[in-house]
Amino acid sequence: MHEAQLDTLTPAQLRELTARLLSEVRYKQATIDKLTHENAVLKRMKFAASSEVFQGDQRSLLEDAVDEDLEAVQSELQQLASKPAVPARQTPKRQALPAELPRREFRHEPDSTRCACGCQMKRIGEDVAEKLDYAPGVFTVERHIRGKWACAQCERLVQAPVEAHVIDKGIPTAGLLAQVLVAKYADHQPLYRQEGIYARSGVTLPRSTLAAWVGACGVQSQPLVDALKAEMLSHQVLHADETPVAMLDPGAGKTHRAYLWSYCTGQFEDSRIVVYDFAESRAGKHAMEFLGHPGESAWRGALVCDDYSGYKALLAKGVTEVGCMAHARRKFYELWANHRSEIAEQALSHFGQLYEIEREARDASPEQRLQTRQAQAKPVVDALHRWLALHRQKVPDGSATAKAIDYSLKRWVALTRYVDDAMLPIDNNWVENRIRPVALGRSNWLFAGSLRAGKRAAAVMSLIQSAKLNGVEPWAYLKDVLTRLPTQPASRVAELLPHRWIQPT
């Protein structure tokens, strides 16, 4: 607000403005204090002798994650500070890039070399900055040459400006940063392994350097992940699932169980989005916090999930439950596989009919899908319900067969809701397939003792897996996004979301 505008405010408005500004200052200072404390804890974690209780790969993973966390905290502190933050640690002397790598020159000159006084400037030298680039399988060096132009009359010096980068004054291009992220979060290669892989190509990239890059990229890409989540929550049908991951606990010298929650848009939606959320536990409060606290801003739609009790609080607040027919079928399959139960075999035949109908309707238009379900699936659903109710009267309470039947009968409304809504799926397999990459890489990314490393992994994986879900090559996507993010207006960050992204020509 300009001074002229302040003069027009009433005393009451001035008091309100002052109170709001004081509140913002207190919040900003509280955040700085929190990050400063976390920074001190991470440094102590990095250098304390207690970290030595980890051995081999676990210790390497812990060191990588702590270095990433340190850089992320420093980046956030620098964004909050009114002036650039002083680096907390001395920057090691940069080694020259290998002379044998192919080099490409990029020359940057001012738009005009005529001085404001009217004189023609003369070129008096140049600055050369080398950046390490990466395209799949190949390292190259970009030589950026910026000529210096000076006016002899007024001693004015002009030089083309340096473009903004995710890593300011660093050697990596967006292509190399994209490679490090994709290798870690899509190909399950921890940084200490990447260090060895790059060394075989003649490039020395210490894991501490790689970790700093990952931490900085995590902070820079968070606005994009926030926009991805907001876009997903605008949809009325979502899937949810969760899977355990090991989380390092440096203080105890061991790991404990944490969880990665996966949320995605429905399989019949045009916008295909998956967003991961890392949490220390499986408590239902994490789903409640992710989808919005009770209130006007909370998400209210149809949630496809299993019968895990952690989702019950959401259902009590107005979220519509959509059951998973695959979970109901699985109860009978286990009964048949273990005991060759005839009842289970008959139940599997009914479930098989429903899935056969769904295979025919899956690729149809919503109108045709609903028509097929009403005409073909509804009679089978009604017959299956009568069959389950009849056989429940014949089996003893507490038996395995009774438990399998009760699972379906108690959830029947949620399990069959898809029959009356073309946009609802028959099961939750869509999101279970999205969580499969986590299971594949579970042994390769144990997290540090704070939530920060897990949250960062969830954020980057959200971008990578959403890109793959939309048929976009993750490395090409991240390379372009990391190139454009530093100068992309906050109001237009949604243009970079995976389902909207268009590959540059």
From TrEMBL:
Location of the Transposase IS66 C-terminal domain: 462-499
Region Disordered: start-end pairs: 81-107
Pfam families linked: DDE_Tnp_IS66, DDE_Tnp_IS66_C, LZ_Tnp_IS66, zf-IS66
Domain Transposase IS66 zinc-finger binding intervals: 113-155
Coiled coil: none
Segments forming domain Transposase TnpC homeodomain: 35-105
Ranges for domain Transposase IS66 central: 169-455
Protein name: IS66 family transposase
Native source organism of the sequence: Roseateles oligotrophus
